[in-house]
Amino acid sequence: MSFEIFDKTIQLTDMYTASVRWIFVLLALYILIRSIKSLLQTKNPSEVWAYMNMKILRTNDEGIPVESEEISMPITHWESVIGRDKNCDISIQDPALSRNHGILMRDTKGNWTYRDLGSKNGTLINGEEVGSAVGQRRSAKSKKSKIGQMGHAVSVEYGDIIQAGLTEMILMPISVEEKNNNTAMRRLDTHFMTAGPSLAALVLFQILTAFQLWIALGEEYYTQVFFSMGGLTVIMLAYFAVMRGLGNTAFEMETIAFFLSTLSMAVVASSAPESMFKQFIAITLGAGAMIIMCIILRNLDRTKKLRWVLLIGAAILLIANLTIGTFSYGAKNWISIGGFSFQPSEIVKVVFIWIGAATLDELYEKKNLMVFMIFSVYCFGCLGLMGDFGTAIIFFVTFLIISFLRSGDFSKLVLMVGAAAVGGFMILRFKPYIANRFASWTHVWDAAMVDGAGFQQSRTMSAAASGGLVGVGAGEGWLESVPAADTDMVFGMLIEEWGFIIAVLAVLSIVTLSVFAYRAIFAGRSTYYTIAACGAMSMFIFQTTLNVFGCVDLLPFTGVTFPFVSNGGTSMMVSWALLAFLKAADTRERASIAVKAGGKI
Q1: Cβ(251)–Cβ(201) under 8 Å?
Q2: What pLDDT was estimated at residue 185?
Q3: How far apart are CA 562 and CA 541, in angstroms?
Q4: Radius of gyration of the chain from Cα atoms?
């Protein structure tokens, strides 16, 4: 009798696993397609902060004014370059203007300032030339500043007359009625997905996952599975409730992040079920870090002031890593204190973007550029000494993107890539284990490689092939026994246990976040937010590319994690923290806690 009950139990669990795999696919398609569709279809409308009324004098061949043209232009960014170049935010066809004449800037408190960019003919504000003392002006009779030397910020009030070249400009505020109308129009242009259905589907997905893991792992891990998965559901519901209470209605990014984090919990349960609670804590801390960062990023002045503190902290972390760090898979990238371990290089990713992003006026300052360059070289050097080749590549690609956004000079990027190539050859020469990874690239199935340098990738592809479209079931795979299967080879685990469809959806989710960040930059309030969003985007997309293509031998295996999915507390927390930069660039009405609603300051 007992054997019959046992057999029936086995049959029931097998039936559950066989049927729930298709339910998982349907739920994943519903959750992610709704989020992806909403992110790609909704607009990121521009905001109007003020108007610039301009009177442009037209001259004849002898330089004598013969007529004037009056134009009113909306100011849609916190920083706007004024000049005759067609790429300027306020482009004026005035031969007396320099190509990039000056910058009009707004701070988070609503105060406006102007900085001359070392223009040839200078700038007058209410008849006084922009002076060299911060916040002051000097007489037009005094000595002019040197051409090409950037002036200091000078306060500008509404109604002040800015004279640049043959153009007279007056900064004018928007009326309360117009401000309310702009807010109403922004709401009409913004159509979010309804969060309720996706949230309900995700909760069901998590509940079914918990039962599947219980079946696969047995009674021994009952507490870990239900406590950790249940805790994740509670934290997720609490987050949505609090954000909704604060007036936010756009949750596509968070829905994607919580879905991928759910997959991460399942991956950890398969490979190291005793670590599920740690991963749950990491997700909770990561979501908390994102909220804190969003609050900080609301105030651009406060954000910029934190740079030096973060830079010093990051420098100390990397030095500590080199001094007391421990080796793992050939790289000295871990610090262990008691029973707690973390990766400093992951934390420095956030600081790298924080330092690299800049407001428009800072892009013209050599000092600001030098700080970023020196910090970048310092990071590359430390990562090289650690032997963390994969992370170094991610940093370098992010550096290239931020550098291009800051300068727009493609030729410099070519030189940087050339220098990096030389450095790469030197690394391959003096780091044998990295050279072995490149040697096995596209040769993992060779007899000499399949049980050696190509062991992980060959097993990963074999396991992935067995997963098919819907996988063998969470916790039912065998790839978890291969070293680094739940971190660097996690894409293979996704395909094996969850199937090709869900694995591809996970990749598309990261791609969608990146596409949304790219689209959002055109309506960004400040270049700081747009550069930061692009930096985070580059880290997400390139890290995912290295992980996915490295698993299937389309790229050399570099040993990097899959954002939000791989096992690892530091990686998980940093993935959530990087999401804050994308939220800060989301200017849709009531879309983000990092952006104050309704055009408020």
Answers
A1: no
A2: 62
A3: 10
A4: 27
Residue 21, C-beta contacts closer than 8 angstroms, at least 6 positions apart? 470, 471, 473, 499
Burial 149-175 (b: 16+ CB within 10 A, else e): ebbbbbebeeeeebbbbbbbbebeebe
More confident residue, 132 or 373: 373
Tell which residue, 330, 420, 428, 429, has the closest CA to residue 377: 420
SS3 (DSSP) at 44: coil
- Alpha helices (runs of H) in 272-387, residue ranges in sequence order: 276-297, 300-305, 307-324, 344-356, 366-386
Between 75 and 408, residue with greater pLDDT: 75
Q: Give the pLDDT band (50/70/90) at residue 596.
A: low
Average pLDDT estimate for 161-182: 84
Kindly state the tokens that stand for 208. 């079914």
Distances (CA, A) of 38 to 52, 190, 192, 268, 580: 34, 10, 6, 30, 19
Kindly report the CA angle at 560 between 382 and 532, in degrees rounded to 5?
A: 70
Separation of alpha carbons 544 and 534, rounded Å: 15
Question: Token pair for residue 219?
Answer: 């009674």
Using an 8 Å Cβ cutoff, are 118 and 109 in contact? no
The per-residue pLDDT for 337 is: 82
Q: How many CB atoms lie under 10 A from the CB of residue 538? A: 21
Q: Which two tokens stand for residue 268?
A: 């950890």
427 SS3 class: helix
CA 76 and chain centroid, separation: 23
Mean per-residue pLDDT, 264-270: 95
Q: In what order do the strands lie in the sheet with 326-328?
A: 326-328, 331-337, 340-342
Instruction: Give the C-alpha separation, 525 to 49, whole Å.
Output: 10
Locate the domains of the chain by residue range.
8-43+198-585, 50-133+147-173
* pTM listed for this prediction: 0.86
Lowest-pLDDT range of 414-418, 446-450, 506-510, 568-572: 414-418
CATH of region 50-133+147-173, choose from 2.30.30.100, 2.60.200.20, 2.170.30.10, 3.90.550.10:
2.60.200.20
Question: Phi/psi zone of residue 165: left (φ > 0), alpha (ψ -120 to 50 degrees), beta?
Answer: left
